[in-house]
Amino acid sequence: MTPVELSRTVLHAVRRAVDEGELAVAVMPERVVVAPPGPGGCGDYATNVALQLARPAGQPAPAVAELLRTRLLRTDGISDVVVTGPGFLNISLDGDADGRLVRDILRAGPRYGHSDTLAGQAPELHAAHDVRAVVLMDAVARVLRSQGARPRLTCAGPPEDAWVRILGIPSDIPVGPGTDAPLRPVPAPADPTPLGRDAARWALLHPAPHDRPHIDDSQSEQHLAQRETNPLFRVRYAHARTRALLRNAADLGFTPEPGPVAPHGDVLPLLADHPRVLTATAAHRAPDRLARHLVAVADALGPLLPSVLPLGDEKPSAAHRARLALAEAAGTVLAGGLSLLGIDAPDHL
User: Fold this and answer.
1) Of the candidate ranges 70-74, 110-114, 140-144, the one whose mean pLDDT is the lowest
2) Which of 63, 116, 183, 307 is a good FRET partner for 55, with 20 to 30 A between their CA atoms?
3) Considering the entire predicted model, what is its pTM?
4) DSSP 179-244
5) Interatomic CA distance for residues 312 and 246, integer angstroms
């Protein structure tokens, strides 16, 4: 069960409780957010939906949580539900939840985390005639489309030729005033195009829109440097290493096979959180959230990679195949996330 499927399962439990008169809620939530448990939580995922429903239902949050807990325990694929704190639902999945998540990612490929959450919506995006604003709008539009929306883009002026040719901005963005407040991030202090498409887009998108990007002459080199202090390099290098491991494993005669992986640190929770990050990125028009998430995945993946391949005369085992599958899944998430930012994820660096 993926996070998206679990979200729908919890929402279905809420709707059934309303339909059967156990909850009196005038306005139903459109979706339920599930995420890895925070401090004090347990299980595979947690949700605060009971706290959201308590006031409109006229019931204490723990009572709403207990009502939903009873319903969720009858659902296939859920092994346990625990109510913690003021009314958080902590959900444990049956069996090999780790292996199922990895299989779901590999099945979806770079589209893992894409959904129809915003289907039918056509948000209007308008950018000032500024290179950072236009790149930001392009990235936001990509993420909105990944969630089913069909954004309409306008710009205060026609995109410059270099923005189209080097940065990959669509050449056909209509010029117009726009009906909503324009996207106006803090402008870049210098022309980013000399960095090339990938480094320039990262330099413009990785900082939050209200933060100043580092692109002046004294700092721009860091975006091209292939060293650990460069977050874009860490993300692309982690992806390239996962692809190298797949090639090396093939030479050794074994392939990835999802299964339990222990210890895995923060990699699996971060992968499970990827759909929520995409939804939040779309909702807040903030590609920096996705960029920071990719850096977190890359950094969490590092400690796992040395243990993927057998050492010396060691024969490939189920553990090696499971770790290889997890590495492949993480690389898939990194590539898919970079693509939504308009950045390439090469297999070789």
Assistant:
1) 70-74
2) 116
3) 0.77
4) SSPPB-PPPPSS--GGG-HHHHHHHHHSS-TTSPP--STTTGGGGT--STT-HHHHHHHHHHHHHH
5) 18
